[in-house]
Design brief:
The protein is 5% helix and 54% strand. By secondary structure, it is mainly beta.
Length: 724
Amino acid sequence: MKRFLIFISLLIFISVLSLNAHNRDFIQNPYDSINNKWNLSDNFHTRGDSLNCTLVGGWFSGPDIAVFVKDTITYIGDGGWLRILNTKDPANPISLGNVRIPGPIDDIYVVDTLAYVAGGSDGLRIIDVSNPTTPNEVGYYDTGGYARGVYVVDTLAYVADESDGLRIIDVSNPATPNEVGYYDTGGYPRRVYVIDKLAYVADGVYGLRIIDVSNPATPNEVGYYDTGSYAGGIYVVDTLAYVADGSDGLRIIDVSNPATPNEVGYYDTGDYARDVYVVDTLAYVADDLYGLRIIDVSNPAISNEVGYYDTGGYARRVYVVDTIAYIADLYGLRIIDVSNPATPNKVGYYDTGGYTRRVYVVGKLAYVADSYDGLCIIDVSNPVTPNEVGHYNTGDLALSVYVVNTIAYVGDADGLCIIDVSNPATPNEVGYYDTGGSAWGVYVLDTFAYVADHIDGLRIINVSNPQNPQEIGYYNTNGYAYDIYVVDTIAYVADWSDGIRIIDVSNPAAPNEIGCYDTGGYYALGVYVVDTLAYVAYGSDGLRIIDVSNPAAPNEVGYYDTGDYARGVYVVDTLAYVADGYDGLRVIDISNPATPNEVGYYDTGGYAFGVYVQETLTYVIDGNDGLYIIKYTGDNGIKDKIKYSENINVTIINSSINIKYSIKSEKKVNIKIYDILGKNVVELARDVQGPGEHIFRWTGKRGVYFIRVQIGSDIYTKRAIIIK
């Protein structure tokens, strides 16, 4: 039951992201095909677009959703990367080269020395692969919508463009491809197969469309068959069209008379048929959850399954050469021996990674929580060429990571995994605690691990003995806990639609809520706290800055709409670095929290999930592409902070807090000191003061305090600890 609940939770979350992606592709597409122009706004960026940010390097490991095989060379679409492998020995695929394109790769077709790539919202990309070790783009054509499928015959590329129909592109000169014809199929074309002078289009909404392309300038539909579900893959042999039709499985359509196609056979593959490839009397189907299904279609009317292989992830594409089936599984390339269809077996595998979720950097090592691949340890000593030095499979979905000394605490869908990383090359699990749900966030302070458990709220685990972790406290936040940040004895939990929950953990055995900030229906997904301000990644509502100086009554003091879907946030000095979903990295100047403004961005092209900053480098986790290492080159905003703070200096001498500042003109000044629970313990000033230097001193008991100084309309806050 637990694993089922976890699976359902993840499906709900992924569905939200998918809906955002769908809206981005079709509602916010910047190309106005009616007026034949681009509608660009300040918030629209394309992959690699940037402001004051430079890509230094990356460890790219995205989902694999496209595959094409030619001779002994296999081409895979790995997020936004075209990877070229030598698969002469299927058991040991060797990476030859790769090249990044602006959009995610949905389909690949190779002719001679050119790879034609369907690059999503970035259209058709043409890659010279004559030298597989150094592939490079030589031409492109923006199809206007979302390029899902591509098929090439002679000098024409036929592109299934999801919102804009079938596009026919002349590629006789790859450097300057141009459209020569177009046909609107009415729905969302996903794949295309061309034979003779007919283009067979799998339209997600309207099924099989048969288009006469004998005159490319005026293509016209000659036949149509509604397959019933969601046509996503197609393969044509002689007079039969084999359609991978989503939840309706494999549909076999007689197209001997294109004007009146009719179904002659059907096989339910069990889950969601994504793609199909036919050799002789066998149809090889990529079925989402159930992997490779091998269907005997010698008699289409009574087709039956003769073999299958569970690829372990989500099978999206299939390509068959001789007795080898190449499966683009969302988490890697599976190479399956199908010489005996009844007992297919895996002979090779190339890991392109899973969905990367979070990153934590210590020194020259980046620790990545990589969904299905677990903990990946990346050497970033040379940011230009980072490389994986260690890996540990946590067993389920790795969702978060926090590192202290030689221990990595990994939040997994099955709980908290405690991993010894003293030798990065051979990490090993030394302890584990089942938190009940999915550990989406983890924060470690002293001997306690604070876990944001998706379903079960805040779990407090004593990890003083990593081999025997014990839960000592628990607080049900009621929502879906996604992230956590702990300061002294206060835990701040990003709790989905229930906002930010502020939990007193001074007694770990009995944590209790002392404050809450309601997001108003938006989704709190990430939180970072500095002094008395909580910076919250609020999904589609961007970055919210919350004053938590009084935890019992938190209030919003600033807001910035980051453009897409804020998932994670990291704050250094006066800059907030936000992982903003499809808009990548956004750098926000927060020197004046009341008026935050964007000073930099870098569009990673995929889906930015997490961010971590160390020294001058920003590490961004892109769910589709892996790890991006980015350098922000703009002003760090510190000068602005000095300007707003009127040169305020706070020092601790013995048991006294000393507040010293100077003002240039007469202003109203208010100075208050709060304890850790937000109680105002003293008000030192509330009057109008003249220009010059001013000093206030207050002696208190041992503890943590927050100083709030307001000079005119500017507010300065600082945390102070009296330890004597």
